[in-house]
Design goal:
90 residues; mainly alpha; 0% strand; elongated
Length: 90
Amino acid sequence: MDRLHPLGIGLLVALMGYKWPLPGAFENWFIFGAWCLILPAVASFAAINFTGCTTFTSVSGARREVRVAAPIQAAVAGLGIVLWLVGRFV
């Protein structure tokens, strides 16, 4: 069970590499923090859709992984959205 998916971290590093040298790319630290939370959560959610697709996984293990990971993904994405909204108005 991976809570922080490598694809999300890769997307985050690519975004930082593209936007960081540009002045004013991230208006403030709230928006930067929001992106740091939203991208890995969305990538993890996309990856969890393939849980149980191999012959090495059991149905109960896949259910348990989704039951544990889905609330964490929703909470992290929700916190990222809140940070983004705060960053837009601060």
